[in-house]
Please model this.
Amino acid sequence: MQLNTKHFGVIDVDERETLYFPSGIPGFENVKRYVLLGKQENESPFFWLQSVDKPDLAFVVTDPFYIKEDYYVDVDDEEIEEIQITDAENVLTLAIVTIPENIRQMTVNLKAPVLINMKNNMGKQVIMKDDTFPVKYYIMSGGSEPPR
Amino acid sequence: MLVLSRKKGQSIMIGNDIEISIIDIQGEQVRIGINAPRNVTVYRKEVFEEIIKENREAALVSVNPELIKGINIKRNENQKDNDDNRQK
Model:
């Protein structure tokens, strides 16, 4: 399957690698299919969640456990029922990165991680109820405050 | 939008299994009880809107993928200090 993407031009994507988000991603509810790009390139902690249906839509994502060592995900079982997660194994946890013009101010959303069930390629962005982790975690300063 | 008036102690039903109760009213503040199946997620609207806003902002990335690859991140302040020390 060929995809004409905004950031990567025309790319070839294996249809079996398509991730299905039954509820989309908040703000983009109608966009249900994504692929992960750049995951195999180990030298970078960042990769892309690229929309299949809307080629100009892509999110930079990263591994939140790499960004913050004491990170954890706490959600009700019922919330992840939709993507049929039954145990923590085979779940890929991603966090969406926001990159403003001043790249040093880049943040990662630790409050609402994207969970992917690797067994069935279904994904969902979940919102944690407690406020342990911020929506804007500044990577460069390692906290809720922008780097000086 | 459907607008209903309710008094303290009264409820409304949404469908068969979601009940919204007015627990208490104190001036401008209303305490609301929600009874819903566990697979129905309930958030304060501000929280949900904050996530939507953040996602929209994140989706605006106009950054060159090659540039992003080149970013090195410091995992935390301690590590940064260690790195600084090493450089000295």
The interface with chain B takes residues 7-8, 25-28, 38, 41, 43-46, 48, 57-60, 66-69, 76, 78-79, 81-82, 96-100, 103, 106, 109, 111-112, 125, 127, 129, 135-136, 139-142 of chain A (CB under 8 Å). The longest strand of chain A covers residues 91-98. The mean pLDDT of chain A is 89. Chain A has two helices and eleven strands.
